[in-house]
Task: structure prediction
Amino acid sequence: MGIIGHFLDSGAFSQKTKALQYHKKHGGGRWDYYDTAEFWEYMECYVQYVKKYKKALDIYANVDVIGNPDLSWRNQQWLESKGIKPLPVIHFGTDKDLKWLKHYVERKYPIIGLGGMAVTGQRRFGTRNWLNTCFEYLCDNKSHLPCVKIHGFGLTDFRMMTRYPFFCVDSTTWIKRGAFGEILVPRYVKGAFTFNRQPYILGVSDKHRALKAGGTHISALRKAERANVYEWLKIIDIDNTKLHDSNDERTKANTRFFCKLQDSMPKWPWPYFKKMQKGLIS
Result:
């Protein structure tokens, strides 16, 4: 994966929430909020914020309208008319025929965002099929390398992060797992920690549900397994005695897990194969 410094999200999800509240209060069309004075004031403020801090921003996103790619394109054009060029965003479920992905690729945007990829239940399979279609289009038939950089919004699924040649991804897993009393631990295979397999999600807090439910908790591990966990924590410089009651220490551990995962990934660009090749991260 690529390495970036500062990525600015546009607050599109918060705007979606406001749009739903506006519709509930005022009725009318589902998208009416996006033509209100309040929304356009937000857009103006976003432009000024980006311009003020542009030197510190590596990437900043369009104020996309989740669920409405036509309005997202309208906003993209408006922001560009104000002198900034945000990353365009396409959402799973609104671009099955890749009309909008092709739209932005043909206009030579250097990086495009893919969003709406929550991967739970049946949605997981739909998301994977969509990503397969996207990367089949994006990647050259001979080299299998992507023709454009792709950012994955809210991409927390390990297999998807390592399966597709995203340039970068964002995720709140490192925060949420810590708050839930959990840490991510890589698999220990043949005397070494490996990042080519799904990591363990290990409960470590005194209040974690696994203590009562008999799930995966550090206290329930066998002695050799616990020793491996302690070895991992030593590698990433985490005090294991603080994990049971310190959210900050758990969050730090998860942050360092993702840093190590990034270090283990191939340098971007790397090839995408529809059929997994032997030896590739899966």
In short: The beta strands are 7-8, 59-60, 89-91, 111-115, 149-152, 168-169, 182-185, 187-189, 192-194, 200-203. The first strand starts at residue 7 and ends at 8. Residues 247-264 form the longest helix (18 residues).
